[in-house]
Design a protein that fits this description.
The protein has about 240 residues and is mainly α. The chain has a domain of about 170 residues. Helices cover about 80% and strands about 0% of the residues.
């Protein structure tokens, strides 16, 4: 009865993640990557558009954009590292606790596993038999999967999340930097607005696809949020530029 923990059980649909082995790690990378790219696009675009609203000089825009890119990438990496490290520490503590309980009170743990299977719809007799076979096969894996919904070999890696987030933020930030710096001054801001909103639509749709949800609502949400951020910083930059001048 070890099928629930197998990666090749028959009857599985090919596009469904029946096995959780490696899934948390992949989702961790993808989540950090999509969020990092989206934040890089929005935050750096807002900075450079705000500065461009105050001045058309090349150097201030470049300086502000680079500062936002470097600072944002580091901030995103640190935030992901701290967050995922806390998650990893909690998962390790739970695994250690479960291992200790299996060593010190095996009968109670067998009863607990039986109860978990009973709560999932199995009869008492069947649940007891399944629990005994799962315990014989791999007691720790059975308890982690059924009780805690984690696997011992799939603990989140904070370095993966941090690196993916920093790289994605940098890649996302490069787009508004190029969009604001390469065109002539008179069309910098419109070009940046268009490029950023298209990029946000793509990242919103990508995030929805990774999450398996319809793309329209999250895409619209991301695009509208980005547009509001750009409009707000441009208005502030224009106001400050006029006031200073």
């Amino acid at each position: 009865m070890s099928v629930p923990f197998s990666t090749s059980a028959s009857g599985q649909h090919p596009n469904e993640p029946h096995s959780s082995i490696g899934l948390a790690g992949r989702l961790n990378w993808l989540r950090a990557g999509v969020l990092g790219a989206n934040d890089g696009i929005v935050s750096v675009a807002a900075i450079v558009v705000g500065v461009a609203g105050a001045t058309s000089a090349f150097l201030p825009i470049l300086t502000a954009g680079m500062a936002g890119l470097v600072g944002g990438a580091i901030s995103m990496a640190l935030g992901e590292y701290v967050s995922v490290s806390s998650q990893r520490d909690s998962e390790r503590a739970l695994i250690a606790k479960e291992r200790s309980e299996l060593r010190d009170m095996p009968e109670q743990e067998l009863d607990e596993l039986t109860g978990l299977l009973t709560n999932r719809g199995l009869s008492e007799t069947t649940a007891r038999q399944v629990a005994a076979e799962l315990t014989e096969h791999d007691a720790l894996a059975a308890h982690l999967a059924l009780e805690l919904n984690i696997t011992e070999n799939d603990i989140a890696n904070p370095w993966h999340a941090a690196i993916a987030s920093a790289i994605a933020f940098t890649i996302g930030a490069i787009l508004p930097m190029l969009a604001i710096l390469l065109p002539p001054p008179e069309i910098r801001i419109p070009v940046t607005f268009v490029a950023v909103l298209i990029a946000l639509a793509l990242t919103g749709a990508m995030g929805a696809k990774l999450g398996g949800s319809p793309a329209l609502r999250p895409t619209v949400r991301v695009v509208v949020g980005g547009a509001l951020a750009l409009a707000a910083t441009f208005a502030i930059g224009s106001l400050l530029g006029t006031t200073v001048a």
